[in-house]
């Protein structure tokens, strides 16, 4: 039983840890460094900036990519089947706005045109917030999401005729596993499972203690019943003329010794004979005859269940007996039955009385 509970606890821990691991891996994502360079015609200088503001898609390979930023020709959302791009040179990266269709449709539209990577920027009013993209139908191409502020700025530069170059590199993993939130969640999970396990084993311990207490009480009650039954057994002292004394055919089964005179013996209700000092310890533990397995407590219960005859029946028998005697006295002046009459036979409950009555009649 203990081994079974131990295995159950191990499986419970394994299940919890597996669930926590799967949850943590599903919520891990990788950020991307996004470097933007373009030529400013006003200052005649190349302006560049870099930030960790991109998020790789769930199904995107974690690779670096670079190229000229290109917008869709007609539909900025790239949701139509006829979406096209017009890059001036290779390699190039598609810049598409989120909305109206799935990420996979947008990425496939750019992938069919030969893009080396896809940058999707968030909806208006979301600021620098990004979402974790799932695009299981468009794998094998680098795809990231950036915030609406950066995406709108890059799209405005391209629309104004500037050549915008983007470099995408892998940054850092993020998620519950790499944050304090995950540490707190894991700590609370560990503490919770530990408390549940402790309560479970405490429940098993108290349940076992209760069962042992009940068993001890039952054993004590059984021992008291055995002692009461043993106290009512017939005990006698053997004399020299008793047939059991020094007999080769009769001996105590418990100690296998023959019976001697002046020894105290106990006679069970099944009429088997044992030494008193031998049979009483046996009966305290096993209230049955060692030879025939007769149960002394069962005999006690059957003996107590026998009810004495009711007073009404005894009075009725007395009344009928007196009536018979009165009739007999009326048939003969001296109270004796006449010739040819059958004498009434008296029935006694005690056999000793019956034997005494037979002796009187013979006299």
Account of the 3D structure:
There is one protein chain. The chain contains eight helices and ten strands. The protein has helices at residues 2-26, 103-112, 148-159, 180-231, 276-285, 296-305, 311-331, 351-362, and strands spanning 29-40, 45-56, 65-70, 92-97, 117-121, 142-146, 164-174, 234-237, 264-267, 273-275. Strands 1-2-6-5-4-3-7 form a seven-stranded mixed β-barrel. A three-stranded antiparallel β-sheet has the order 8-9-10. Helix 4 (180-231) packs antiparallel against helix 5 (276-285). It is rod-shaped, with a radius of gyration of 53 Å. Mean pLDDT is 76; it is low at 21-25 and 309-363.
Q: How are the SSEs placed, and which strands pair?
A:
Elements: H1 2-26, E1 29-40, E2 45-56, E3 65-70, E4 92-97, H2 103-112, E5 117-121, E6 142-146, H3 148-159, E7 164-174, H4 180-231, E8 234-237, E9 264-267, E10 273-275, H5 276-285, H6 296-305, H7 311-331, H8 351-362
Helix pairs in contact: 1-4, 4-5
Overall 3D shape: rod-shaped
How much of the sequence lies in strands comes to 15-25%
Helix content: 40-55%
Average residue-wise pLDDT: 76
| Helix-strand sequence | HEEEEHEEHEHEEEHHHH
Q: How is the main sheet built?
A: 7 strands, mixed, barrel
Oligomer state equals single chain
Report how far apart the termini are: 78 Å
The CATH architecture classification of the largest domain is 3-Layer(bba) Sandwich
Rounded to an integer in angstroms, the radius of gyration calculated over CA atoms is 53 Å
Find the CATH topology of the largest domain.
Answer: Glucose Oxidase, domain 1
Number of strands: 10
Question: In terms of structural class, how would the helical and strand content be classed?
Answer: alpha/beta
Number of helical regions: 8
Whole-number tally of structural domains: 3
Low-confidence stretches: 21-25, 309-363
User: Briefly, what CATH class of the largest domain?
Assistant: Alpha Beta
* Adjacency order of strands in the biggest sheet: 1-2-6-5-4-3-7
